Amino acid sequence: MKSLNRKAFRLTVMAAGVAGVLGAGIPAASAQQVPQGWFKACTKQEDVDICNVQNIVTAGNGQLITGVSLIDLRGKVNRKVFQVTVPSGRLVQPGIGLQVDGGKTQKLDYVICFPDRCVAEVPLTDQIVTSFKKGQQITLTSINFQNQPNPIKITLSGFSDAWDGAPLKQSDIEERQKKLQDFVAKNNQDFAKKLKEEQEKAKAGN
Fold it and tell me: How far is residue 184's CA from residue 160's CA, in Å, rounded to a whole number?
């Protein structure tokens, strides 16, 4: 039983981490360049079918801000979890607060931290899914190392379609990943160009 629990935990963390990269959201100003919002990705790992409905919010440089995953494992391991991923440098004890619209805040405890991100989770219940379908937005609040709350608001528009609809095809996921990589690469090039221009201006000023 313990080995199955370890396997379930490993698969859910892997589902949030790997699939999350493929669905990274981009700020609204760039929405036409890269797809964003809720989507479903399904895959098979060993003898377990994994479906993940998710929404990932990133900064303009591709850095993770917040990732939301509703993960369903079926097969040799059966488990449903709701996970939220945030950058590292968080106070662990407060966990992450989940609020749907103006409702009561639910606490999600952290289960693991990596050098670049921390993951909190609770069991995925029908109540969570129903509240997401009926709600307008969720607010996810973590506490940073300066003891300051970092609330992130994510729209629930499109959640029901992603939850009830078919998963993305592998080709769609690959195209989504490529567009994200191209966008981040262009941002990095633009930043490097601006930096060089500023350096040249500074030299000319001297």
Answer: 29
Q: Report the Cα–Cα distance between both ends of the chain, in Å, rounded.
A: 70
CA 132 to chain centre: 16
Domain containing residue 75: 2-205
Band (51; pLDDT cuts 50, 70, 90):
confident
**Of 61, 63, 65, residue with least CA distance to 186:** 61
CATH number for the domain harbouring residue 169? 2.60.40.1880
Query: Which of helix, strand or coil describes residue 186?
Result: helix
pLDDT of residue 195: 62
Distance separating alpha carbons of residues 186 and 27, to the nearest angstrom: 15
Residue 14 buriedness (CB in 10 A; 0-12 / 13-18 / 19+): middle
Where is 81: in which H helix or E strand? strand 79-87
- Please state, in angstroms and rounded to a whole number, the distance separating the CA atoms of residues 100 and 156: 9
Number of domains the chain is built from: 1
Looking at residue 1, what is its pLDDT?
46
Which pLDDT score is estimated for 76? 82
Give the separation between CA 108 and CA 123, rounded to whole angstroms: 10
Whether 106 and 97 have beta carbons less than 8 Å apart is answered as yes
Enumerate residues 6+ apart whose C-beta is below 8 A from 101: 135, 136, 137
